[in-house]
Amino acid sequence: MLEMAVIYLAAAIVAVPIAKRLGLGSVLGYLIAGIIIGPFAFGLVGDQTDVMHFAEFGVVMMLFLVGLELQPSRLWKLRHSIMGLGGLQVLLTSSLFFVVGYFILNLRWETALAIGLMLALSSTAIVLQTLAEKGWIKQEAGQNAFSVLLFQDIAVIPILALLPLLAFTEISHVASSHSNLIEHLPVYAQVLISLATIAAIIFSGRYISAPLFRYIAETRLRELFTLFALFLVIVIAVVMQKIGLSPALGTFLAGVVLAESEFRHELEVDIEPFKGLLLGLFFITVGASIDFPLLIEQFSNVMIFVMGLIVIKALVLYALAYVFNIKSKQKLLFTLALAQGGEFAFVLLSLTSSLEILTVEQTKLTTLVVAISMLMAPLLLMFYEKIINREDNAQQAFDEPEKIEATKNVIIAGYGRFGQVIGRLLTAQGYHLSILDHSPSQIELLRRFGNKVFYGDAARKDLLEASGANEAQLLVIAIDDADKILEIATLAQKHYPGLKIVARAIDRRHAYQLMNLGITAFKRETFDSALNLGVEALALLGNEQKNAERAGRIFARHDNESLVALASLWGDDHSYGIAVRQRTADLKQVLSTDKAEQDKLNTCRNSDGSPCEDSDKNAVTTAPITN
User: What is the arrangement of strands in the sheet containing 433-437, beginning at the earlier edge strand?
Assistant: First the structure.
């Protein structure tokens, strides 16, 4: 068992970083790792059935975490896309596959219907993982894809109930005798028990879980909290499975109920590593389960079926995206994200095989087609990202230089949350601005609110000059890309020496790089807000407000002085490290001494009764390195 674990872990450690570096994504890396160690490549692992059943628990955990991100109010807002878009996708896709299977491939109607239902499902694990990695999950296409996947997960329940009805009566009886604990009951009783179980999960999550979590948290044993979180997920999954319902659906509902809990963030942190490991294991087992001898033997048929699966699903998805008014660019992302088979197909295939709805050969072929389509899923999204997205961006040319309004006052490069604060202050003081931003979506949003912003890259000399760089007094570089800031600053200094520059520094390292260019007017983007919050923290800890603010002023002065003093040591790790430790110790001593002096001043009075002189101005200046 330990040898198997070593093989799986080693394969993931080798394949996934390489895949990420090549831009393939972690999902494709896991799939490739599975292919490499599978029985049809190096043969390091054998049959994956048992491992896959265990790894499928990663999907259950993923749905629990997805539920934690969805407050009930937000889920209610998605009801139309879940029921409408998701319901139509499953209905239309399964119907088309049924038509192809029954009328073109001459399969039994029971077989054609079963295959149609399982192929209508997409991969929740691959889609959500990839969309989250790419940052697309919050986009319109990502939200609609999530709605469809959620309906598919719900649809697994009636599909599981329907499949035994497609088999012969005697086969159905024997094959399903151990599937769940309530199947021998009348249908109405099964429905009532299922509804009661779901209601119990919701009730427990809302009214019972909080006191239990609070009790566990009071022990201050982090591992016990993690243990209880895993216990909660596993118990819900087992209960749902025992009554014939989807474990993923049960944990999803529990996650939604707990989304408003005070322990939501702790649950996410505790479950996330286990989810990631099990999902990685699941993808590896999918890759290892690809039957390459069968693929070689029936290569043309398999590829035709795979392409047919992707094309049919894509046509249905694109048509639905059109009907539901999804934006043009988002239509394609929505379509390519869901145009593959899913992990629940493997669950359904094991049942259809035992019910003899599919023959052994049909089961192997369908498994292969679904696995290859899942292997192609990340490639489809790579196609969208590398080709379609690039072409779309290429079509959005920067504004022509003659269209950009020049200024004699201030040019601002980057008008996001950082640049807007500066821009609003300068505008309020009567200065005329020429604003450049390189994000089309940001410009569209800003223009909608009446801001005059031009689409351009300030690192291009012609666009910077068109903004008035020859005559302007000041250039504000407020974008959030450290390398691009340095590029713009270098360009401006070279061609417009009379133009003053103030810049956004991403962190201390970036501040040193700006200082090396001779730019001294900069602000680290998080320093002031973090320092102000630190002052509030001191006040909440019982310090007088004036003393907390005084400590903050001393800290800020010392830190800025040390930034200048240590700039020459940056890059020499040994010398810089010694200086950091020394100045950190010095600052601690200075603040401690100053606090003692302030305590003394509070009780000190001059002969005339007035308070003694404040020594803020005379505070010793040594500095820490904190940022």
Answer: 454-455, 433-437, 410-413, 474-477, 500-505, 522-524
